[in-house]
Design a protein that fits this description.
about 210 residues, mainly alpha, Arc Repressor Mutant, subunit A, 2 domains, 10 helices
């Protein structure tokens, strides 16, 4: 293993412990001291990778954005209609990617408490949401010939699409009926992904989205 690989592995381990502690205790209760103690490293070693907890959150957001962009590119490559784009997008977003699911759970827990986060983190979340809307706006433009969405309405429809898709996935995979409101367990999310009724729910939603757009 090269020195560069060792450094990257150490950075990933720090982020992994940070994510586990956030899911267990909440962002505000996690300290740098606890992270370094869990890994058996010095604070100096930690600060050679991250300046603060904020930097770790920003790293998680950036990685999540990168994963989202790569998956969107893949969906674009294999889709030839708006309906297929929706279907492939949904199927992609219900994969058993443990690393990504854990990161999403961390980000969900942070979004619930935006008021305690630094302004730079809140701004990155907003940027992420805007990029998501822009993706659907591009899809509506790409398949405009098969849809009845005017250019003037395209942005508003993109916002609606983004909210519908996000809301559906959130309710199916992450929302709970107890006082926590959202699960923090990766195993619970993986169990929900295996639910055989999900495909039926996806098809029902796609059918009604297409009715709205055509």
């Amino acid at each position: 293993m090269t020195e560069k690989q060792e450094l990257e592995n150490k950075k990933e381990k720090i982020l992994e412990i940070f994510q586990e502690l956030v899911l267990e205790k909440g962002y505000s209760k996690v300290s740098v001291e606890e992270i370094t103690s869990s890994l058996g490293i010095s604070k100096g070693s930690f600060y050679s990778y991250f300046k603060s907890k904020k930097d770790m959150v920003l790293e998680c957001i950036e990685e999540n954005m990168w994963i989202a962009l790569e998956r969107q590119k893949h969906v674009d490559e294999i889709s030839d209609s708006m309906e297929n784009t929706l279907r492939n997008y949904f199927l992609d977003r219900f994969q058993k990617d443990i690393h990504h699911i854990k990161m999403e759970l961390v980000l969900i827990s942070l979004v619930k408490n935006l008021e305690i986060l630094e302004e730079s983190i809140a701004k990155r979340f907003i940027t992420f949401e805007k990029a998501y809307v822009q993706y659907w706006e591009k899809q509506l433009e790409k398949y405009r010939e098969e849809l009845k969405v005017s250019e003037e309405e395209r942005h508003e429809y993109a916002i609606l699409l983004a909210k519908m898709i996000q809301g559906f996935r959130m309710s199916v995979l992450f929302v709970t009926e107890d006082e926590k409101f959202f699960t923090t367990e990766v195993a619970e999310v993986l169990k929900r992904i295996e639910d055989k009724t999900i495909l039926q729910k996806i098809e029902f939603l796609i059918k009604n989205i297409m009715k709205m757009l055509q």
